[in-house]
Write a structure and sequence with these properties.
Strand content: under 5%
Number of strands: 2
Family: Belongs to the FPP/GGPP synthase family.
Enzyme class: transferase
Shape: globular
Protein name: Octaprenyl diphosphate synthase
InterPro entries: Isoprenoid_synthase_dom_sf, Polyprenyl_synt, Polyprenyl_synt_CS
Helix content: over 70%
CATH superfamily: Farnesyl Diphosphate Synthase
CATH topology: Farnesyl Diphosphate Synthase
Oligomer: single chain
Order of helices and strands: HHHHEEHHHHHHHHHHHHH
Number of helices: 17
Keywords: Magnesium, Metal-binding, Transferase
CATH class: Mainly Alpha
Radius of gyration: 19 Å
Length: 309
């Protein structure tokens, strides 16, 4: 990861000061760096030691960071990773345009691999992520959203870049098609579990620990699995309260919504759904070589269920 950070620092340079300033602001905020870590772990599991793993790990982090910059503008978010969002600090225009810079820089870097398959994977991933973002926008304030539709969005919006990160490692390692598919399956299941747990934490997390405001999803009219399950299990009165909060995007009754989500067992059910995805990830890589990196991948899937930030 130190090697990846060096690549990130080197490739953030720009002759336009504001570009470097905004990009450095959000990159330096840290974050979990899960996607590059996943690419590195999968590369190690497949015994690939080439320098391109550092380059592509930085690429997926740039793509992820670009989506964060754009997301925060769309969602009108003010807090991320415990400090003001880039759009809050520098304004929406700068955030959008620097997000564009990071996307284009990522594509410059992926060309360095000279591998058309790498470019195909990342081009497809960024396109599907964009579609997922638009679909989520269309779904906002729609209290009738089904669990299937919810999962479809997060597999596009979040899990796709996890899937691409794992698949890229297999491509770099020259793994056979069936092993590449297994790596991709691991990434998709891991990314899905990650997002499902993230949605749990919006109703059961600690704002100080998470570095973002509780109830943001509700304020933005996002229908997530805890709310879907709570409406399925709750009384007619409870359903009306949640439906109204979703449709109006209001958080005045956030405490009541959280109470309903907890008392109906919706949080437990959502955690069970995440556990099922984590198990799918674990099952997907049973055929990988057994080494410390593979053990790391198994531990990563298991640890998501205990995530608090």
């Amino acid at each position: 990861m130190r090697e990846v950070d060096q690549v990130i620092a080197a490739r953030l340079s720009s002759s336009v000061p504001l570009v470097s300033q905004v990009a450095q602001y959000i990159i330096s905020a840290g974050g979990k760096r899960l996607r590059p870590a996943l690419l590195l772990l999968m590369s190690g599991a497949l015994e690939y030691r080439g320098e391109q793993r550092f380059n592509l790990a930085a690429v997926v982090e740039f793509i992820h960071t670009a989506t964060l910059l754009h997301d925060d503008v769309v969602d009108e978010s003010t807090l991320r990773r415990g400090r003001p969002t880039a759009n809050e600090s520098f304004g929406n225009p700068a955030s959008v345009l620097v997000g564009d810079f990071l996307y284009s820089r990522a594509f410059q870097m992926m060309v360095d691999t000279g591998n058309m398959r790498v470019m195909q994977i990342l081009a497809e991933a960024t396109n599907i992520i964009a579609e997922g973002e638009v679909q989520q926008l269309m779904n906002t304030h729609d209290a009738s959203l089904t669990e299937a539709a919810y999962l479809n969005v997060i597999r596009s919006k979040t899990a796709k870049l996890f899937e691409a990160s794992a698949r890229l490692a297999a491509v770099l390692a020259g793994a056979p098609a069936e092993m590449e598919a297994a790596c991709a399956d691991y990434g998709q299941a891991l990314g899905t579990a990650f997002q499902v747990i993230d949605d749990v934490l919006d109703y059961d997390g600690n704002a100080a620990e998470m570095g973002k405001n509780l109830g943001d999803d509700l304020r933005e009219g996002k229908v997530t699995l805890p709310l879907i399950v709570a409406m399925q299990r709750g009384s007619a009165e409870q359903c009306v309260l949640i439906r109204t909060a979703i449709e109006e995007g209001e958080t005045e009754n956030l405490a009541a919504v959280i109470d309903i989500v907890k008392t109906t067992g919706a949080l437990d059910a959502t955690r069970q759904a995440a556990a099922a995805q984590a198990q799918l990830a674990i099952d997907a890589i049973v055929g990988l070589p057994r080494n410390a990196y593979t053990e790391g991948l198994l531990q990563l899937a298991a640890s998501l269920l205990d995530r608090r930030i």
